[in-house]
């Protein structure tokens, strides 16, 4: 039993040095009401088929924390990889709660993974704040779960309205990732709003695929025969990239509409430039937004990570500042107090928009619509709730 | 009706890749009665090797040839180091070793080349080695990547991609060539002799170790062909691509009659068609079970597989 | 320091206990009856799902709220449902032998996994959430101890000995009037039931289960535990489970370069154990510690029922 965990050794050193400071200077080392340190657990898909989401989120989060400098509250991150799966997320959140005793948790990206993690967080009464999971059901009936992104009933409606009013679409097909709560939720909200706006979606043109699929020809041929005005694909970039590529091969020239699950540089790599260009995507943020604060973030992110930030990077960045603000407001690192502070946050000014949490701890904030070119997303318009 | 024909044709292309992997399972099992669970990973390593070689600027036939030789030799070494010492140690030990090898390869590739899906052209990690390689082969931006034929046949409502036909043709061609090799050449006959009667084959002078190495080499080389086709078709390789494809190919091998070469092709095609039919009739969530459902039916009703001959169980 | 070590260990210890229970179940099938099952994780998943469905849907309807009673009943439900699944799979599969049996169990496991993915009431592919936390370290180790004691007693019963006789020489056993089909069937069914109990403990610890738990890779882990430890004894299976769970955990504390590649070292260990001690680590232990020879005397090492 002489295993030394590097973590505990570090902690011991830091508490010793803090104690020495306090003795030497005769001063209390934390001001009244301020929190010295808060342990933030982070669950992200750092590997697997959603890995760019995890990497970008973490880069954004770290940039925010480094920028905040050494002021209290100091945030100590404990990052766990979920491999982008629900079971990985459940295991990671259990470890953070029972082993690392974190005060609060940020993550996951994919809705199904956040849902898998949320039961354990809720029953241990550790607040879990997701920066990017948009499925409506995530926060339902779980008062320790919150989010700083918009919900899918909003996102689906934004795209449906865009399809009908801007693209003048009358008919649509939907390709649904049946393995994801995210995709299923968006299918329903898009369908509802599209029909309400006067469009039609035939039941047989709501076609499912699985995250393990690589050949989408069978699904695409059905779409090709029906020639709908638009095809809505609420899915993740790994599969969407292949779908766009194969659609091009099959000379399927319909317009594709996507959602924030598309927002990854890998979309362009997998689809290839020709197949990637010319589609419309709803997201949280656009790197070519002219807002000076967005541009400052883009510059800083680029100089650190050698690539343009996507929506996940921006949400990770906002999550970092939001979390610090909440802890500061709570004046404590007690999970229950942090929960209350998060739930009560109003008009937080983030680079992805002004964030106000509603009664169900969901952020009310604008979405952006971007258009794909051969290699990146271009800002088109902003839609307020 | 057109739908049905469409799904059948689509299934042929999907099944062809399974078939190419299944050949290796089938040959190794025929000779050693060993389920080489690491075979799916040879397919994965092959796909990576070829993708990186092509991204460095090698013409694809050269990349394919090098990949076949490299992965083939790798399989031979793997057999010598890890399976040979376990001959006679019962069935379980080599099986577990195979599983260990499969884990090892997945994680090695993940550690060296990253855990995330890679697409053409692959960007090498920054460093001295890659800049040296780029200075020899030119940077990836200048490389013209090979493409599978892009055209379409488009009759009425029937749509067939040229590349699907190509993949199917390759699978049939390779199976025929392999069958010919096994029947007409001396080393090929050696493999068949070993599969039929190991002891008698030794007595009449079939070089035992060499023949086994040859079996592993051929199986691995064919898996590289499958890896190239799959990689080009999907424009995506991952460290885990060997698991699902490997298991299904294994089911295909059993389905066709394990140890029977044309059986692997038939098994792969049947499986591919079954999967496409399920996807076509919107039952795609049942797709992954289909392979195994057919597998069990075959095992229970005709354990020697579709094309296999009944053999007495050796007691 | 100590305190943190214990805190860190609770989750890995629970996982060890759960893996050990699964391994004990498979030990009866593989080491006891000589049947290679590559689908053991499917019974674990069936047990886990049924137990979770019981606590989430059935228990509130029956008005059961007391956590102890709920967990106890969940264990029973998990065990019985896995037992039923094991029975249904065993009836066709046991007509097959050797590798064909292994393939059939693998196939059934994949089919069960696919079936679970298509049941929307338990979350489909996205997994079953909202499961209460009922299980604890104490529960896991009490169950582990009970399973161990029952299995070691069971070996000395008539049925237990008939199972071993069937493994050692099926024809001889049959000539002695042993119904070898029955003894194989009972080993398979009891082993599956134990896996189901482990599944019930798991879902109420993690509060989540997805069809991934029925994956081939999970079945492989259990086979590895049984074989690495030494498949002829209960001790070997528990030792195997300990190695499987603890090696990756201990490597977490290693320097970064080693820690990130822990699965590579783990795979290498599996290969080396098989190459240098194909009968499992327990046989090495026996060699080094002559006084513990008793542990291995309960079974004769055989391979695959030949």
Written account of the structure:
The complex is a heterotrimer of chains A (385), B (315) and C (306). In chain A, 45% of the residues lie in helices and 18% in strands. With 385 residues, chain A is of the alpha/beta class. The longest helix of chain B has 31 residues, at 2-32. Chain C is mainly alpha-helical and 306 residues long. Helices cover 73% and strands 0% of the residues of chain C. Chain C has helices at 2-32, 40-62, 67-93, 98-117, 137-154, 158-168, 170-175, 180-206, 216-229, 234-251, 256-259, 262-276, 281-288. Chains in contact: A-B, A-C, B-C. The A-B interface holds A 47-49, 51-52, 178, 207-210, 212-215, 217-219, 221, 224-225, 238, 241-242, 245, 249-251, 266, 269-270, 272 and B 6-7, 10, 13-14, 110, 115-117, 119, 150, 152, 154, 157, 159, 161, 163, 230, 233-236, 238, 244, 276, 279-280, 282, 284-285, 287-288.
Q: Provide mean pLDDT of chain C, rounded.
A: 86
Q: Helix fraction of chain B?
A: over 70%
Q: Roughly how many Å apart are the termini of chain B?
A: 50 Å
Task: Please provide the ordered H/E string of secondary-structure elements of chain C.
Answer: HHHHHHHHHHHHH
**Percent of sequence in beta strands of chain C:** under 5%
Task: Report on the biggest sheet of chain B.
Answer: 2 strands, antiparallel
Strand line-up across the major sheet of chain B = 1-2
Biggest sheet overview of chain C: none
Shape of chain C: globular
> What is the typical, i.e. mean, pLDDT of chain B?
86
By secondary-structure content and strand pairing, the structural class of chain B works out as mainly alpha
Globally, the shape of chain B reads: globular
The topology string of helices and strands of chain B comes to: HHHHHEEHHHHHHH
Give unreliable regions of chain B as ranges: none
DSSP helix fraction of chain C: over 70%
Oligomer category: heterotrimer
How many strand elements of chain B?
Answer: 2
Radius of gyration of chain C: 19 Å
Secondary structure blueprint with pairings:
The complex is a heterotrimer of chains A (385), B (315) and C (306).
Chain A: H1 6-25, E1 37-44, H2 51-68, E2 74-81, H3 86-98, E3 104-107, H4 111-124, E4 128-130, E5 145-147, H5 152-166, E6 172-177, H6 181-196, E7 206-209, H7 217-226, E8 230-233, H8 237-249, E9 255-258, H9 266-271, H10 273-276, E10 280-283, H11 292-305, H12 311-330, H13 335-343, E11 348-350, E12 353-357, E13 363-364, E14 367-372, E15 377-383
Helix pairs in contact in A: 2-12, 3-4, 5-6, 12-13
Chain B: H1 2-32, H2 39-55, H3 60-83, H4 92-113, H5 128-137, E1 152-155, E2 158-161, H6 162-184, H7 186-196, H8 198-203, H9 208-234, H10 241-256, H11 261-280, H12 287-301
Antiparallel strand pairs in B: 1-2
Chain C: H1 2-32, H2 40-62, H3 67-93, H4 98-117, H5 137-154, H6 158-168, H7 170-175, H8 180-206, H9 216-229, H10 234-251, H11 256-259, H12 262-276, H13 281-288
Helix pairs in contact in C: 1-5, 1-8, 1-9, 1-10, 2-3, 2-4, 2-8, 3-8, 6-8, 9-10
């Amino acid at each position: 039993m002489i295993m030394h965990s590097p973590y505990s050794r570090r902690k011991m050193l830091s508490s010793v040095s803090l104690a020495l400071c306090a003795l030497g200077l005769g001063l209390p080392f934390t001001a009244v009401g301020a929190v010295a340190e808060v342990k933030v657990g982070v669950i992200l898909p750092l590997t697997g088929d959603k890995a760019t989401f995890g990497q970008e989120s973490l880069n954004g989060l770290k940039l925010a924390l480094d920028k905040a400098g050494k002021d209290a509250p100091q945030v100590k991150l404990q990052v766990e990889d979920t491999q982008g799966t629900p079971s990985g997320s459940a295991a990671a959140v259990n470890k953070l709660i029972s082993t690392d005793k974190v005060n609060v948790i940020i993550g996951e990206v994919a809705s199904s993974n956040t849902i898998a993690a949320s039961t354990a967080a809720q029953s241990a009464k550790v607040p879990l704040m997701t920066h990017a999971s948009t499925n409506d059901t995530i926060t339902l009936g779980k008062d320790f779960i919150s989010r700083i992104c918009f919900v899918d009933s909003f996102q689906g409606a934004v795209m449906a309205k865009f399809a009908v009013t801007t693209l003048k679409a009358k008919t649509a097909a939907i390709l649904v990732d049946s393995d994801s709560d995210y995709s299923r939720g968006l299918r329903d909200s898009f369908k509802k709003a599209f029909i309400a706006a006067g469009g039609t979606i035939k039941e047989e043109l709501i076609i499912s695929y699985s995250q393990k699929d690589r050949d989408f020809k069978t699904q695409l041929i059905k779409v090709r025969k029906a020639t709908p005005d638009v095809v809505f694909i609420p899915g993740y970039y790994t599969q969407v990239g292949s779908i766009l590529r194969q659609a091009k091969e099959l000379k399927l020239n319909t317009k594709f509409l996507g959602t924030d699950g598309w927002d990854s540089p890998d979309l362009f790599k997998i689809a290839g430039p020709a197949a990637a260009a010319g589609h419309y995507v709803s997201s949280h943020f656009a790197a070519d937004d002219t807002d000076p604060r967005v541009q400052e973030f883009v510059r800083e992110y680029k100089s650190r990570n050698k690539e343009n930030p996507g929506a996940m990077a921006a949400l990770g960045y906002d999550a970092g500042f939001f979390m610090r603000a909440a802890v500061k407001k709570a004046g404590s690192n007690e999970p229950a107090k942090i929960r209350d502070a998060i739930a009560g946050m109003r008009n937080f000014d983030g680079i992805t928009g002004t964030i106000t949490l509603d009664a169900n701890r969901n952020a009310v904030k604008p979405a952006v619509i971007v258009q794909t070119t051969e290699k990146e997303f271009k800002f088109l318009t902003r839609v307020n709730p | 009706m057109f739908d049905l024909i469409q799904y059948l044709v689509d299934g042929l292309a999907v099944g062809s890749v399974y078939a190419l992997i299944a050949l290796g399972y089938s040959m190794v099992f025929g000779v050693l009665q060993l389920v080489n669970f690491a075979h799916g990973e040879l397919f994965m390593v092959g796909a990576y090797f070829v993708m990186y070689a092509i991204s460095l600027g090698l013409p694809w036939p050269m990349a394919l040839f090098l990949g076949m030789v490299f992965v083939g030799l790798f399989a031979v070494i793997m057999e010598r180091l890890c399976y040979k010492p376990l001959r006679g140690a019962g069935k379980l030990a080599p099986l577990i070793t195979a599983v260990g090898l499969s884990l090892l390869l997945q994680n090695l590739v993940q550690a060296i080349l990253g855990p995330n899906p890679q697409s053409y052209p692959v960007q090498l990690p920054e460093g001295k080695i890659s800049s040296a390689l780029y200075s020899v082969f030119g940077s990836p931006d200048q490389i013209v990547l090979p493409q599978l034929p892009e055209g379409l046949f488009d009759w009425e409502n029937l749509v067939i991609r040229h590349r699907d036909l190509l993949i199917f043709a390759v699978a049939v061609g390779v199976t025929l060539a392999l069958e010919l090799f096994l029947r007409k050449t001396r080393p090929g006959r050696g493999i068949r002799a070993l599969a039929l009667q190991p002891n008698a084959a030794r007595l009449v002078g079939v070089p035992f170790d060499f023949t086994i190495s040859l079996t592993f080499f051929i199986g691995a080389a064919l898996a590289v062909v499958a890896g190239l086709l799959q990689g080009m078709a999907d424009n995506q390789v991952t460290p885990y691509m060997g698991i699902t494809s490997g298991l299904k190919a294994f089911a295909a091998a059993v389905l066709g009659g394990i140890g029977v070469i044309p059986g692997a092709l038939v098994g792969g095609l049947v499986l591919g068609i079954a999967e496409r039919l399920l996807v076509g009739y919107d039952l795609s969530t049942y797709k992954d079970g289909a392979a195994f459902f057919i597998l069990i039916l075959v095992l229970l009703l005709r354990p020697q597989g579709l094309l296999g001959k009944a053999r007495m169980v050796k007691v | 320091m100590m305190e943190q070590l214990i805190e860190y260990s609770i989750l890995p210890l629970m996982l060890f206990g759960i893996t050990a229970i699964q391994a004990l179940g498979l030990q009866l099938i593989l080491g006891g009856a000589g049947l290679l099952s590559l689908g053991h994780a499917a019974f674990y998943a069936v047990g886990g799902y049924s137990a979770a469905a019981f606590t989430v849907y059935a228990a509130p309807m029956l008005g059961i709220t007391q956590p102890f009673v709920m967990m106890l009943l969940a264990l029973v439900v998990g065990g019985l449902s896995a037992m039923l699944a094991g029975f249904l799979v065993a009836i066709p599969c046991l007509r097959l032998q050797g590798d064909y049996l292994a393939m059939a169990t693998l196939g059934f496991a994949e089919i069960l996994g696919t079936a679970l993915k298509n049941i929307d009431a338990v979350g489909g592919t996205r997994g079953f959430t909202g499961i209460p936390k009922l299980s604890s370290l104490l529960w896991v180790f009490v169950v582990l101890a009970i399973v161990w004691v029952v299995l070691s007693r069971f070996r000395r019963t008539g049925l237990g000995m008939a199972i071993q006789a069937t493994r050692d020489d099926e024809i001889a056993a049959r000539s002695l009037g042993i119904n070898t089909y029955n003894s194989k069937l009972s080993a398979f069914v009891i082993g599956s039931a134990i896996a189901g109990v482990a599944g019930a403990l798991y879902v109420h610890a993690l509060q989540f289960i997805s069809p991934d738990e029925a994956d081939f890779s999970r079945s492989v882990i259990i086979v590895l535990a049984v074989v690495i430890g030494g498949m002829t004894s209960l001790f070997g299976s528990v030792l195997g489970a300990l190695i499987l769970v603890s090696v990756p955990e201990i490597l977490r504390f290693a320097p970064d370069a080693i820690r990130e590649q822990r699965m590579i070292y783990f795979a290498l260990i599996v290969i080396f154990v098989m190459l240098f001690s194909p009968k499992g680590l327990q046989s090495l232990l026996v060699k080094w510690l002559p006084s513990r020879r008793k542990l291995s005397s309960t079974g004769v090492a055989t391979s695959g029922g030949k």
